[in-house]
Amino acid sequence: MTSARSVLLLALALLSTGCASWAPPPGRGMNLRYTPHEAAAPTVASTPAPEGPRRLHSRRGSRDAVTAVDPGSEEGIERGSALSAHLAFRGALDDVSVSTRHLSGALSRLEDSHGGIAGKAAGLFVPHVEYGASQLRWMDAELAAATRLAHAASEVEDVDMQLALLRLAGPRLEAAMLGSLLLAAWVDFLNLLDVAFKHGYSAVETLLVDTDRWQTRMEPAMRALASREPGQVEAAAQDMPALMGHLSSEFNRTAERLHRGLRNVEKVMLLAQLVEMVTMVSAMRFSLPAMRPSAPATLGVGMVVGGDGVMVGTRLVVSAEWVEMMRRLVRAGVLSLTTVSAAVRIQAGQVMLAEAYDALPRGVREALGDGPEVRGMRVTGKAGAGMTEPPRHHVLPKEFREWFEKRGFTGEMDIDQFCVRLEQAHHQAIHGGGNWKLGRTWPGEWNRMIMKALQDAESRLGRLLTRNEVLEIVAERMNLYKIPMNFTRWDGR
Amino acid sequence: MSEDRSWEGNWKARLYERVRERGYDSITAFAETRPTASLVALAEELGPDDIAGVQVFSGLVAEAERNHQVTRLVRGQLVRELCACLPNGWPAVLDDANRFKVAKALGLWSSLTPTTHEECVRKAGDALLASPPPPGWCPLGPDDELLRALLPDEEV
After folding, report:
1. Of B7, B100, B111, the CB nearest to A425
2. Do A472 and B104 count as a contact with CB atoms less than 8 A apart?
3. How many CA atoms lie within 13 A of A20 on its CB side?
4. Which of A44, A66, A211, A416 is exposed most, by the fewest CB atoms within 10 A?
5. Mean pLDDT: which of A82-86, A374-378, B104-108 is highest?
């Protein structure tokens, strides 16, 4: 009888967690909320970003350094859209930073929780807390690097180069954004253990097995995200919603086991409340009702875009501001639609978790910036059409690595970041191969030409060129050689 | 990623075809009617998706070699670089920002100089900095007097 009652109570408690997921997101610490942090944002929003196909790297017209830019001109529009992408990027960075700070606080509380997870079984469980903290470190490092790149982008003159630098920062933001979602789930789980220990749960071995299983499940995705290799990040993004679905059912299983271990009804109630509290802050709270088949009401509820943002039924998944911010970043080629879709599906909860990428309704995809030209931009060749990707080449000659280092090309701005994919014919041509030249007396070979331009300018200037000045000269010549301003990282091969 | 096809197919044939379509019998003749436009702008006009500025320049070098007009081409190229980097003409005050603009123009110019002319281009750059032209100076073509004095045509 007692056990029947407690099952009923647990069911009620879980239903109440389910109900919580129907409320709009709380106004704090949500990974995906966007509040315009900069006063300038609303004014930018009122100048519409250009729509329709637009070539990304090759700016039309001359490269004239126009001092007063007419906002209606192509140059003016491009500057406007670069600025709006820049502001959106800063907004997204702030968003993710808020959630990593929140996670950092949660992890240090756990480390000090001597009545709970850091108590009697500390030797067994604290390493898992530390694992979380070490993941947080790479995310913070990525966010810091992305912030520096965004800063560098704001300082260069050339609009194409500004966008190229933001695109260089994009994968770092993506990795940190998805990583923080995954880590939030991990912290939820640790919190659950903490609560269990605090209430005298003693079957440590079972929980340890659960914890290890979780970590094993999560680790490949974490590693892929930490690698910063765009292909791996993209693949991890694609798998993330399903992984989160799996993790939340594991979470429920552990919660159930805890319930069985705590016979006292009051404690069960308390646990249920704490579970609810624990999961309020992460993406997991939306996926929790999946536990019971008695929640069919959420299934089959379509996802729609409205004035307030993306809704599932009556629940707001992500705000309109967030959608707008992502749309700008996706259209500027800074973030991939896969990552943004994954984030939305995770927020949407179990309705979307199990479904395929294409299951994101078209209207929502379009609101997030999807379009043929964006898809074309992001099909990096590899997955699409089964073609091998063209090889990567250094734009800043690697024989002069030290020369560039002395001029500020270090860390996230080292010359390995400035690689481009070129088809064989194009690559041969710019390196003077393939007998492409018409004239005899001008070699036109890229490395020789660019170093001559840089070194000659520097000797005329009478001081070292700054990193931005180098980029300005390089951007100029990339236009001349029609080298796409779409950088990709060198992977050492 | 990019829909640009500048390096696909026989671009030399394509380049000459476009020039002839516009009624010119050489790339030089086409380029000389637009003496202050950048090479990128010239390429943009001939084929926004399938001609690169560097191809136009390579064609100009070949024609200049044949016609013994390399010095003229070199002067013309300085005009293009100056117009792009210093749209308001030679600066009145050579502060750090302006000095960079001048240095950038001269650096870009020297990187597009045929090997035969590297030495005289270096000297011409030195001369420009040693005795600067009047503020606002903005040569409009290879026949600019000051430029001709700096880089006189070769004897044919």
Report:
1. B7
2. yes
3. 24
4. A66
5. B104-108
Cβ–Cβ < 8 Å for B49, B14: no
Query: A195: Cβ–Cβ under 8 A, 6 or more apart, which residues?
Result: A116, A271, A274, A275, A278
Q: How far is A484 from chain B (nearest CA, A)?
A: 7
Interface of A with B in 377-436 (CB under 8 A): 377, 380-381, 421, 423, 425-426, 429-430, 436
pTM of the complete model: 0.76
Q: For A248-285, what is each residue's pLDDT tens digit?
A: 778 878 877 777 766 665 666 666 666 665 554 454 54
pLDDT of residue A65: 37
Q: Would the ipTM clear 0.90, i.e. be above it?
A: yes
Is residue A258 helix, strand or coil? helix
Out of A65, A457, A480, the one facing B52 most closely (by C-beta) is: A480
Residues of chain A in contact with residue B12, where contact means CB-CB under 8 angstroms, are 438
Cα nearest neighbour of B12 on chain A:
A438
Mutate to test the interface with B, among A456, A469, A478 (most CBs of B within 10 A): A456
**Could you report the per-residue pLDDT of A345-372, keeping only the tens digit for each?**
777 765 455 555 456 777 777 777 777 6
Question: Residue A117 in contact with residue A110, Cβ under 8 Å?
Answer: yes
Closest Cβ opposite residue A429 in set B7, B61, B100: B7
Task: Determine the residue type at A289.
Answer: P
Q: Which residue has the tokens 């943002």?
A: A309
A228, A300 Cβ separation under 8 angstroms: no
Query: What does the alpha-carbon distance between residue B154 and residue B156 come to, in Å, rounded to a whole number?
Result: 6
Do the chains contact at A376 and B99, CB–CB below 8 Å?
Answer: no
pLDDT of residue A30: 36
